[in-house]
Design the sequence.
């Protein structure tokens, strides 16, 4: 039995420049997809995958995230006194189920650095990393799929998906060889190399890293030795590449659909899909969309 994964790290210190002006005074993680902040989808995915300990890496201007996962006595009292039990349940549910710690990333030195600052909080155990911008919908939580692979291999594993060749430069991209798993050989890969944001035409494959990882604690040593890379930042991809020199690293082509909610078009697509899936809104919204003369 491999050690259990009990903690999930959520890097959330980015400036959200792609969503200005909306993110001038509010964190991008708090932008709502229908009526739930982006980050809550990731937190719920962690919970559904059996992880209750959430570590959020924040920065300046991110206190709304802390307030969101905290108890709001005034709001709860008001809802209670007005008999609004459904709303009360909605605001209570997630914060009751999770234990959250916050740590500040004082300077925006990159995703790898954001993970590195959680070293003391994670301590010497395997952990998950969730990039909340990547919203993944499917019948099984993506993180749960990775945890199953981790239980099988005992090694670090990250989510990947096939992307069109002309989009590879937006991602971390892997070179990999397939490994048999669950009577199939087209989902699990042993990573041979990886490149963050490869130049056009230079990607080693079309398998792009998506924001879900299970990492062994040795990643902290690897990250501490990782020099700034793409965009002058300490990249998580480079840290994992370094880790791979010491132990096998896997990638899993997950089942589900991913939306890049950190991008304006991806955000709109996620909003539409999530609204259509809602029991209370889906039917009306679908007929509204159909009525549009596009
Ligand atoms: C990050 C990672 C990248 C990964 C991507 C997935 O990049 O560095 O390897 O492919 O998330 O969303 P970012 O989107 O933060 O630039």
Sequence:
């Amino acid at each position: 039995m491999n050690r259990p994964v009990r903690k999930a790290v959520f890097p959330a210190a980015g400036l959200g420049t792609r969503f200005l002006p909306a993110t001038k005074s509010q964190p991008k993680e708090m932008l709502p997809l229908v009526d739930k902040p982006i980050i809550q989808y990731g937190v719920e995915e962690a919970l559904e995958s059996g992880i209750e300990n959430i570590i959020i890496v924040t920065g300046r201007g991110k206190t709304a995230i802390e307030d969101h996962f905290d108890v709001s006595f005034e709001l709860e009292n008001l809802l209670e006194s007005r008999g609004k039990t459904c709303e009360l349940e909605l605001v209570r549910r997630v914060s009751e189920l999770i234990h959250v710690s916050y740590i500040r990333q004082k300077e925006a030195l990159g995703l790898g650095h954001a993970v590195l600052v959680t070293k003391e909080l994670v301590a010497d155990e395997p952990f998950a990393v969730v990039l909340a911008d990547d919203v993944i919908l499917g019948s099984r939580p993506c993180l749960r799929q990775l945890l199953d692979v981790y239980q099988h291999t005992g090694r670090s594993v990250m989510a990947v998906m096939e992307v069109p060749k002309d989009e590879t430069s937006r991602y971390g991209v892997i070179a990999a060889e397939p490994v048999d798993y669950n009577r199939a050989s087209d989902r699990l890969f042993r990573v041979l190399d990886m490149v963050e944001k490869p130049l056009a035409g230079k990607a080693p494959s079309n398998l792009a890293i998506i924001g879900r990882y299970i990492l062994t604690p040795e990643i902290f040593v690897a990250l501490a030795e990782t020099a700034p890379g793409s965009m002058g930042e300490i990249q998580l991809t480079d840290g994992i590449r370094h880790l791979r020199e010491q132990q096998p690293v896997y990638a899993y082509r997950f089942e589900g659909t991913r939306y890049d909610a950190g991008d304006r078009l991806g955000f709109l697509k996620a909003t539409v899909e999530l609204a259509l899936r809602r029991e209370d809104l889906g039917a009306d919204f679908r007929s509204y969309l159909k009525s549009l003369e596009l």
